[in-house]
Design a protein that fits this description.
Blueprint (H helix, E strand, L loop, with lengths): L12 H12 L2 H5 L1 H7 L3 H29 L3 H7 L6 H33 L11 H6 L4 H18 L2 H28 L4 H9 L8 H14 L6 H7 L7 H31 L10 H13 L4 H35 L3 H21 L14 H29 L1 H9 L7 H27 L6
Helix pairs in contact: 1-9, 1-13, 1-15, 3-13, 4-11, 4-12, 4-13, 4-18, 4-19, 5-6, 6-8, 6-15, 6-16, 6-17, 8-9, 8-15, 8-16, 9-13, 9-15, 10-13, 11-19, 13-14, 14-15, 15-16, 16-17, 17-19
Organism: Thomasclavelia ramosa
Protein name: Transporter
Keywords: Membrane, Symport, Transmembrane, Transmembrane helix, Transport
Length: about 450
């Protein structure tokens, strides 16, 4: 039994980097990043995203990881240990977010499992129909079964623990994910007509650059890097103190950005080749993955094989993210109640079913429930991503600025190595991060309300 007296840890830097990168690399890298890059000037967006990732994103990654390693606690306990009486709300937000995200994330993970199954059984031709996805997602039984299948896979890995489960799984899935992304990207590049998509993706188009390019890149970077959802606190608490934190975080950023970049190379040229160079066919979200991409694969030579590899890649990305969300929940419950890992996992699996099933049925028999005019799943997504995560990240910044001081973070980083980007970190924390989080919060809410388009 794991207790609060004996905390789990990653075996070394590689295990930590692969696990955190696995958390960061999720569905957003695949179904949203390519769309935003194409919409906001290709190379211009890529450059903007990269600059924000190594400044704004780095500051938040280092902050949460350092506080996690310093306290050896998950968010609620970490905030309490650091003396954040007036900001304890932030610790609770960091804890609640993964508990609300993992159920609906497992719904989407179940959809991925279903599509992968259809490719494995050579039934991918049926996926090409415009009505297939809507018919499947709005049915009652099948999506729930696949939700539980996906959640069961996540449960199995997390039950094995940090080193034997999460670390070993991440060390296998992440290299495989990169290899598959490279394979599909290279195949897509040699598809007739794909070169126009490559140009559209990579060549900067400054006529499409605007303040919204920065806002879109900032939002995508924030949601991609697992910030404000307790994961970095939790995984930071599993990091051994002799591990070079700055170098580890840099490697996570590189891997996350690489996968997002490769996703663009996989999807944009392939969609361009399929549509005859029409950028309007490139959309974002579930419609890209579950409606457009099956049609693209159906038009390719060896499309069934490419589609199978693609959905296996997507499954790996979804799994590594869901594993980190569930592990964060386990850590929070263990820190607070000292339950065994097995008991925590069973409780969380029950919670996934309790909240995930209504999210799934919200597209069918429960579609009359529309909080704020949204489906149940989209409502949870809006509350966590658009509101709670930016606020929880802002609370962590205020915790550092008002309570612990920057020295608490810089000393923790410098315990194992020289903090090379210390000046850049301090500048970002003092002048960039909080205004940036405010922009993300406001733009996300306005986008959901339909006032602006991102």
């Amino acid at each position: 039994m794991e207790t609060k007296h004996k905390r789990s840890s990653f075996s070394g830097r590689l295990g930590y980097v692969m696990a955190v990168a696995g958390s960061a690399v999720g569905l957003g890298n695949i179904w949203r990043f390519p769309y935003l890059a194409a919409k906001y000037g290709g190379g211009t967006f890529l450059f903007t995203y990269f600059i924000l990732a190594i400044t704004f994103g780095f500051a938040l990654l280092i902050s949460e990881t350092a506080l996690g390693r310093k306290t050896k606690k998950s968010p609620i306990a970490a905030y309490k240990q650091l003396g954040a009486k007036k900001l304890q709300f932030g610790g609770w937000l960091n804890a609640i977010v993964p508990m609300l995200i993992v159920p609906y994330y497992c719904v989407v993970g179940g959809w991925v499992c279903k599509y992968l199954f259809e490719f494995i059984t050579n039934n991918s031709a049926s996926l090409v129909s415009d009505t297939y996805f809507t018919g499947f997602s709005s049915s009652t039984l099948q999506p729930v079964i696949w939700l539980l299948v996906f959640a069961g896979m996540v449960f199995g890995v997390v039950m094995l623990g940090v080193e034997k489960g999460i670390e070993k799984c991440s060390k296998v899935l992440m290299p495989a994910l990169v290899a598959m992304a490279l394979f599909i990207a290279l195949y897509a590049l040699f598809t007739p007509g794909a070169i126009e998509g490559v140009k559209y993706y990579l060549i900067p188009d400054f006529s499409r650059f605007s303040i919204m390019t920065v806002v879109a890149a900032m939002g995508q970077m924030f949601y991609s890097l697992s910030i404000g959802m307790g994961i970095l606190f939790t995984y930071g608490s599993y990091m051994k103190r002799e591990i070079d934190m700055e170098q580890s975080i840099t490697q996570v950023e590189i891997m996350d950005t690489l996968i997002a970049f490769l996703a663009g190379l996989m999807i944009i040229p392939a969609v361009f080749a399929f549509s005859g160079g029409n950028p309007d066919t490139l959309n974002a979200g579930p419609s890209l993955m579950f409606i457009t991409m099956p049609k693209v694969f159906a038009s390719m030579s060896f499309g069934n094989i490419i589609g199978l590899v693609f959905f296996l890649l997507v499954l790996f990305a979804a799994l590594t993210s869901a594993i980190s969300l569930m592990e964060c929940c386990v850590s929070i419950i263990q820190d607070r109640y000292d339950f065994s890992r097995k008991k925590c996992c069973v409780l969380i699996f029950g919670g996934i079913a309790l909240l995930g099933i209504p999210c799934s049925l919200g597209f069918g028999v429960l579609d009359f429930i529309t909080p704020l005019g949204l489906s149940i799943l989209d409502f949870f997504d809006f509350m966590t991503n658009s509101i709670m995560m930016p606020i929880s990240a802002a609370c962590t910044c205020l915790l550092i600025i008002k309570v612990t001081g920057f020295k608490a973070v810089t000393d923790e980083v410098e315990y194992s190595s020289k903090f090379k980007r210390k000046k850049a970190y301090l500048f970002c924390m003092k002048y960039v991060v909080v205004p940036g989080l405010l922009i993300i919060l406001i733009s996300s809410v306005l986008s959901t309300m339909g006032i602006i388009s991102i």
